[in-house]
Amino acid sequence: MSEENRKIPQHVAIIMDGNGRWAQSRSKARVAGHKAGVETVRSSVTTARKLGVKALTLFAFSSENWLRPESEVSVLMELFMFVLTREVKRLHKNGIRFQIIGDVGRFSEKLQKKIKESETLTENNTEMVLSVAANYGGRWDITQATKQVAEKVNNNELSIDDISEQVMNEHISLNGLPDLDLLIRTGGDYRISNFLLWQAAYAEFYFTDTLWPDFNEDAFKDAIFSFDKRERRFGLTGDQIKNNPE
Ligand code: IPE
Ligand code: IPE
Ligand code: MG
């Protein structure tokens, strides 16, 4: 099938894993892998937009990554600040809306300010939404949504009987974007590492051994095109899907 006719996932998320091992295999410090990984972020954004993906969500730093050695955490924070400063104008020029999902309150004031500015600058862009998950955890996300809903019940804005999956959905990160279609993990492990627990309910999974800094345009295209071969049944039978294609 030609590239043009393939079904493209509307919302793709990536667990960008393997930076440390990439560096270690070259006898470099782990942070060299994070630096190399920045270039892959850049090319992935370009490729996703080119292929017509509507939302790209990248896992950059998990709630649990604070447990790493302090020196690695601080380099990651500096890198984050540097990349935001350097790349946001380019995102804006390409019509990309940028947002952070996660508990940003733990970041430095300076970084929080930069995040706000970047989100505001790009908020009306419509070509693609780039969400970066930073200090993000799927359990944190479900917990913060639950707190918001409980607050509404407390204020008599909502009754307990009104709490539904739809209401929860409205308070979970990434609400308003198309449902997650494809979740990619690089780096050879087969786990979700507390990423999008709620949102991944019906996502297709794609695992590759390729380490994140090596995940080039062709590798990303392979992942995206693999989606076309998946039969998404959403609980129905295969026959039901075949007799009633969307
Ligand atoms: C992913 O690469 C990036 C972050 C978690 C920030 P890792 O740093 O986890 O790389 P490996 O898994 O140790 O190779
Ligand atoms: C997941 O990778 C988090 C990010 C890619 C940001 P980790 O390397 O932290 O995951 P585990 O520890 O192997 O599960
Ligand atoms: Mg890892």
How would you summarize this macromolecular structure in one to three sentences?
With 246 residues, the chain is α/β, with parallel strands linked by helices.
Number of domains: 1
Which regions have little confidence, pLDDT < 50, spanning 5+ residues? none
**What's the number of helices?**
8
CATH architecture: 3-Layer(aba) Sandwich
The overall strand count is 6
Classify the secondary structure makeup into a structural class: alpha/beta
CATH superfamily: Decaprenyl diphosphate synthase-like
- How widely separated are the two ends? 19 Å
Ligands, ions, cofactors: 3-methylbut-3-enyl trihydrogen diphosphate, magnesium ion
The coarse overall form would be: globular
Report strand order across the widest sheet: 3-4-2-1-5-6
What is the residue-averaged pLDDT? 96
Give the biggest sheet: 6 strands, parallel
CATH top level assignment:
Alpha Beta
Strand content: 5-15%
In the CATH scheme, what's the topology name?
Undecaprenyl pyrophosphate synthetase
The share of residues in helices is 40-55%
Q: What is the CA-based Rg, rounded?
A: 19 Å
Task: Please describe the topology of this protein.
Blueprint: E1 11-15, H1 19-24, H2 30-51, E2 55-62, H3 70-93, E3 96-101, H4 109-122, E4 128-136, H5 138-154, H6 165-171, E5 182-185, E6 204-207, H7 217-226, H8 238-243
Parallel strand pairs: 1-2, 1-5, 2-4, 3-4, 5-6
Helix pairs in contact: 2-3, 3-4, 5-6
